[in-house]
Amino acid sequence: MQDKLEIEELIVKSFSQSLNPEEKIYLDSWLNESKENKIHFAQLGNIWQVAHPAFNPDEIDAGKAEAKVRRKILLQNWTQNSVAVWWQRAAAVLILPLIIFMGYLFFNRNQLKKVTAYQEVTSPFGISSKIELSDGSTVWLNSGSKLKFPVTFEAKERKVFLSGEAYFKVHSDKSHPFIVKTCNMQIRATGTQFNVEAYPSGAYTAVTLMEGKVDVNMNENQKEQLHPDQRIVLNSKTKKYSLVKTDAKDWGMWKDGVLVFRDEPLDEVFQRIGRNFNINIELKDSVLGKQIYRATFEGESLEEILRLLKMTAPIEYKRFGRNKLPDNKFTKERIEVFRAQ
Amino acid sequence: MVEEGQLLKELKVGNKKAFSYLFQKYYKDMVLFGGNYLRDKSRCEDIVQSIFLKLWGDRENLIIETSLKSFLLKSVKNGCLDELRHTEIVHKHESYVEIFGDMNGIETSHYILYSELKVHLNEALDKMPDLYRKVFEMNRLEGLKYRQIAQKLEVSERTVEVRVGKALGLLREYLSDFLVTLLLLIFFYN
What we know:
The structure holds 2 protein chains of 2 kinds. Chain A is α+β, with helices and mostly antiparallel strands.
């Protein structure tokens, strides 16, 4: 009991901060003796603090304090709202650039589409076409030919695909090479005029250059550069080619309605005539077909051409009219050519 | 009697009445509790007000693992200790903080608030023999130091200390009903 009172005394002294150092050490050691001692001390401390409040409880005005805090909350809400307003303004400022950006994206997407959007022009037999490309180049497409080209040229290269014969007048643009692809040849030009013959069924593919220069890539990495008045002929079967000198303008005259034959086998002559007039001409004599022929026809009718050929070559021919097929279509007109007896 | 969990739910959904209720219930106790660390009433009030401001601001993300009371008292304690550190007047109060401030959560988890104890404290004091009550009240109400009381009563300072100690011991006895719960809680939480 005496000991306990002493501790109570020390505790009381500690609460009023009047412990001397030895007393403090003694109190501390007592506190560390057990949890119960600590609890005891905490309980007395609690009672002491409640009994000796630092401030007069009656002077603490909770109502007034709450009003103050509520004002601050309102102010906080207001600043939060002003942040929202700021964002709205920022959004309003940003909306136009955003629309422009999205429009740009959309536009770009369209551009990409255009690159892949190709247009295809086919000249039926008997008709040739003239095509103006978006880059300013002009293409004459011979009868029975097909040209595939982008609606607008957006890529680095201006690439077109040809099946058949076409005369190209390429608009000069060195940074965007013009490329003509055929089934076994690739012609690369910047600003030139050249004629390409690449009928899929033909025995050869040929390029004839009128102006400037072109690079011709053939399959199996064969490469040649053409100069004006040169003509390259690639055999479709043997894949061999020859480079010959020629009068280039003759090879492009078909676009003006002039049929020019320069040292061509009769086989080829009849094939071209047939394409031009949309008829099938069958040469029934293979020896005669190899015979070299030279001629120029301008504005002549098929009848006249055949008559003129007959005058210079030992040939006879027989015309077969159109036959109506069961599906109401008509067969092509057919001409059979024989060696004259 | 409002259930605390329900009160917190209401607070989270922004019920201003719940906030007001909590404010009125705890504000004075919190300020007085702060007074144990920081003997500056306006500073204690500022700290407690900022705690309530934060409570409202963060109400949606509020996670209280202990009791709301303990949470609030811990906030006050931390706020006061921060304040003491910032104003570098720790030395002035450090012994006080040392004594009451670091009892490993006892004082916040199981602290009996002024409002909870006030009525019973007065009742307990009424029960107390005059001899002890007189020195206790002289110290408590008039703020007299033991030495001053000793002079007034013409007794030794030590006698005053013994009597105050006896008074405190008696109070602990009389208030044991409340302090028992404190005891149990301490063991439960520790």
